[in-house]
Specification:
By secondary structure, the protein is mostly helical. The chain contains 13 helices and no strands. Helix content is 76%, strand content 0%. This is DMT family transporter. Keywords: Membrane, Transmembrane, Transmembrane helix.
């Protein structure tokens, strides 16, 4: 298997891990604060990344690049997560998932606007088809809940989406110079320190009282975050950001599949149609051959 195929696989794994973590998060979020959950998530993820990073040897990273990578870690893990949690507390979860599903389109627009990628009609169509599939998947519940006109919540949600897209582009220069594992571990370390400070300032506990089942889910969320983040950066070092982020469309359908297996609700033709649209969109967005690195 060549590097291109491995990168496609890593991007797909990232999308599916995000979806699985969504399901586990629902079992924990009611009994802990957003700040504590974010800290636990990335502290456990960091514990997964540190041993292989130490075994692989330390990369010689300049102080300037360390500062930039740390800033990206804070943006992607702390600020993005806090904005998303703020939106989730005030808007329907389906609405948040639907807006965040436009991440591939936002990434492509930013990449084109900054000259980092060439225009690709098939990738644009693929991202559009995937978003339509997610609309079909979430439409029945997208209008549910309260706070649909909370402008601050919508601004936080759009801000989280923009940060996710921007970070996927800004990581590339550092991934070209340093191993993905070193970048992953350092960025996550800085975000964990930042989130620990947020918890201390806000009075949120670093170790909440959870049941054994909830701790199992919290550990899974952390491990999936560590592995998913490494896979994401590894893929971003080898593929265009818009192509990698297209696989984030797999997150909501992975969550639905897990809930279907758990008999949370019965399968329907609407779900089947949504799956076909999302998977077709991902295929359209990634069927081109490897593009030259730029």
């Amino acid at each position: 298997m060549n590097d291109y195929a491995k990168a496609i696989g890593a991007a797909a794994v990232t999308g599916m891990l995000v979806g699985a973590a969504m399901v586990s998060t629902r079992t924990v979020s009611a009994d802990t604060t957003p700040e504590t959950l974010a800290f636990l998530r990335y502290a456990i993820g960091l514990a997964l990344l540190v041993p292989p990073a130490l075994r692989g040897g330390s990369a010689r990273i300049s102080a300037k690049d360390l500062l930039a990578m740390g800033g990206l870690g804070i943006l992607q893990f702390a600020i993005l997560m806090l904005l998303m949690n703020y939106a989730l507390a005030r808007l329907p979860a389906a609405s948040c998932a639907l807006v965040f599903s436009t991440l591939p389109l936002v990434t492509m627009c930013l990449a084109l606007a900054t000259g980092r990628e060439r225009f690709s009609a098939s990738r644009l169509c693929g991202a559009g088809v995937a978003v339509i599939g997610i609309v079909v998947l979430l439409a029945p519940s997208s209008a549910a809940g309260q706070g649909a006109f909370d402008l601050r919540a919508w601004a936080a949600l759009l801000g989280a989406t923009f940060i996710g897209a921007a970070c996927s582009l800004l990581y590339r220069p550092y991934l070209a110079r340093y191993p993905a594992l070193s970048v992953s571990a350092f960025a996550m370390f800085v975000s964990v320190v930042f989130l620990a400070a947020i918890c201390l300032v806000s009075g949120a506990p670093l170790a909440p009282r959870l049941s054994a089942a909830q701790w199992a889910n919290a550990v899974f969320i952390g491990l999936s975050s560590g592995l998913g983040y490494f896979c994401l950066l590894w893929a971003l070092g080898r593929l265009e950001a818009s192509r990698v982020m297209a696989f984030q469309a797999l997150a909501p359908i992975t969550a639905v599949v897990i809930e279907l297996l758990g008999a949370a609700y019965p399968p329907t033709w609407r779900l089947a149609g949504a799956f076909v649209l999302v998977l077709s969109g991902v295929w359209f967005g990634t069927r081109e051959g490897r593009a030259p690195k730029g």
